[in-house]
Amino acid sequence: MADEEKKGRNFIVEKFVEYRAEFRKIVWPSRPELIKHTITTIVISLIFGAFIALTDGVLGVTFTSIVSRFTS
Description:
mainly alpha
């Protein structure tokens, strides 16, 4: 039982050491890069949102007109 606990702790310690080593390899963006990427993400999100809203509006009007022709 004690050996199993010791193996479990060693496993946890080894994984922690590995994660810590990988975390140190991360290259964080500079402030200007971060601002540039943030603005790009917001602009692209707004463009896609507008496209989806426009498509939804056009399809809604189209289907409403089609249904109204068959129900009248």
